[in-house]
Amino acid sequence: MNALYSLVLVFALVLIALFGVGTAHMAGLFGTLLPYVAVAVFLVGFANRIIGWAKSPVPFRIPTTGGQQKSLDFIQHDRFDNPVTPGQTFIRMVLEICCFRSLFRNTKVELRDGRVTYASSKFLWLFSLLFHYSFLLIVIRHMRLFFEPVPACIGFVEMIDGIMQLGVPRLYMSDLLILAGLGFLLSRRLQDPKLRYISLVTDYFPLLLIIGIALSGIYMRYFEHVDIMAIKKLTMGLVTFSPVIPAGVSVVFYIHLFLVCVLLVYFPFSKLMHAGGVFLSPTRNMPNDTRINHHENPWNDPNIKPHSYEAYEDEFREAMIEAGLPVEKKA
Ligand code: HEM
What we know:
The protein contains 14 helices and two strands. It has helices at about 1-20, 25-55, 85-100, 100-105, 125-140, 150-160, 175-190, 195-200, 200-225, 230-240, 250-265, 275-280, 280-285, 310-320, and strands spanning about 105-110, 115-120. Strands 1-2 form a two-stranded antiparallel ribbon. A hairpin with a 2-residue loop joins β1 (about 105-110) and β2 (about 115-120). Bound molecules: protoporphyrin IX containing FE.
């Protein structure tokens, strides 16, 4: 049901842009005003969430660890699963952010011959990587719409992405891979009953929204062959703050752009904020040096003095002996 709601929602968004531009002729609203509002909401919302997290106190070391902590010399220390120095923590973060290392450890529970078994499951890791890297490549390639002249590095990314030289216009591998990634992420939620049970509209909606963006983009490039020069006039108008609505821009472009605007507005308030949050996650970005450094709680009340067991025993020794309690020092 949640998947269906999300699908209806994305369809409704497509219809809003279709009728808004196609029937109500509001290209100005969809092509200039909404993108500005969306970018502003995204930037302010994103910064706000990051500042909120950055200001949250983290008085203790709370890294999640998956390996041996630094201990005695003869016990092998797992440097990247249980980092102890800032350098090791940095490498752990790079591996997490660039390689999704924790997803690589994903396991699945199955009943085999009536017994509960845990098995490695790498598909989530693989398809998540495919999705995220394809998304990144597509965003980098799109930068050609916002730069004049187009930087050489964007041309290089386009060349690599289309290196198979299939078809006219050339097929970008990232277009296929993003659909494969998104298709897997969606179907795993729908197919696995456990996952389906815990999946909400907020899980399906962003997936379906991004699928909508990718499909409308693919339709524009490979099927409708939109007037890219007219679109570039529009996008350059946006970045130079002299917005124009050129003639000949297809309505599918406005649908594509509207879905992107919705994604931008939705982003800071959604689980998609993991993109920024991963950098500030104290379970990941802290070294686990609790056996090396003594951490004092910064919130300790200075008026309350610590009372060691030694001092406690000194204070109550006689009463303890009288009550028959064991003491460390007799007098
Ligand atoms: C979340 C951001 C976006 C995603 C994921 C996305 C995705 C895609 C995809 C998958 C394609 C198919 C062809 C290709 O890969 O180049 C495409 C094409 C296109 N997109 Fe986007 N897009 C995004 C944002 C935008 C924005 C902000 C604009 C313009 C304001 C835009 C304009 C276009 C145009 C004009 C095409 C057709 C390109 C061509 O014919 O070569 N897209 N988009």
